[in-house]
Every structure is written in C-alpha cells, then in structure tokens.
Amino acid sequence: MSWATTQNNLGRALVNLGRRESSTERLEEAVAAFHAALTEHTRERVPLEWAMTQNNLGSALVTLSERESGRARLEEAVAAFHAALTELTRERGPLRWATAQNNLDKALARLREFDTAGRRGEIHRFVP
Fold first, then answer.
1. Chain centroid, CA 11 distance in Å
2. Is residue 16 included in any domain, yes or no?
3. Is residue 128 situated within a structural domain?
4. Which ranges of the chain have pLDDT less than 50?
5. Taking a C-beta distance cutoff of 8 angstroms, is the pair 8, 56 a contact?
6. pTM of the shown model
7. Which pLDDT score is estimated for 70?
8. Are 65 and 74 in contact (CB under 8 A)?
C-alpha cells in the first residue's frame, strides 16, 4: 500500500470520526489528509485513484460545510466533485460515476439552500 493510499484511508477514517463529533477538528484533518494524498495520487500517474481521492475530499468538505457558515467549503466540494467526474465516467465505472454525481448533486443542493436562505436573510441548517 502506498503512502498516498494510506493518507486517503486516513482521511476516510477521520471523516467517519468527525461525523460523530461536534467539533470540526477531525474533518479538517481529513481534508488535509486528502490534500496530502493528492500530492502523490496525481491525475497523470493514477487517474482513478486521483478521482476517488477528489470525491472523498469533496465529501469531507460538504460535511465540514454543515458546521461552518459561508459557502467556501461547498464551492471547494463542487470543484472536487467536478474534478473527480473528469475521470469517473459512466463508461469506466457506472457505480463510481453515479456516486460522484450524487455527491455533486447534494453539494449543489446545499449551495442552492444556502443561497435561498441567504436571500431571505436567514441561514437554515441543511438536512440531507
């Protein structure tokens, strides 16, 4: 197992822990682990691993956004999901493609909820 795969797995474990805790510390550590994995899991070297790490990063960012105000994390998540979908195509792997599409849709729905609530002057917590 490579160092980048270990970082990716660490990030996934940290997200699972972070979902059970009220603080954002574990989720921020997960985001850092995914970014670290992406330094070795490059698109050029291992496109599918890169895409899966991008997808994991996006999921962590969405979860983190639920605990913070502002839309920056959601925008980062949308960018990560779009990046993942450049390699996770329907033809290459329909299940992985569908998962990434679903994750992107959830992030975009959260952004729409944020924008709608912001126009009314109130931000509501999004419940998936």
1. 11
2. yes
3. no
4. 120-128
5. yes
6. 0.88
7. 84
8. yes
**CA proximity to 52, closest of 15, 20, 17, 87:** 87
Position 22 scores a pLDDT of: 92
Q: Are 116 and 90 in contact (CB under 8 A)?
A: no
| Per-residue confidence (pLDDT) for residue 113, from 0 to 100 | 87
Q: b/e map of 20-45 (b: 16 or more CB within 10 Å)?
A: eeeebebbebbbebbebbbebbeeee
Q: Is residue 125 part of a domain?
A: no
Domains in the chain: how many in total? Answer: 1
* Structural contact between residues 77 and 54, judged by C-beta atoms closer than 8 angstroms: no
Domain that holds residue 61: 3-120
> Cβ distance 15 to 59 under 8 Å?
yes
- Token digits of residue 22: 């009220």
CA distance linking residue 89 with residue 44, whole number of Å: 16
Q: What is the pLDDT of residue 118?
A: 60
What is the per-residue pLDDT across 30-47, written as a single tens digit (0 to 9) for each? Answer: 999 999 999 999 999 999
Of the candidates 114, 88, 116, the one whose C-alpha atom is nearest the C-alpha of residue 102 is 88
- Asked if residue 86 belongs to a domain, the reply is yes
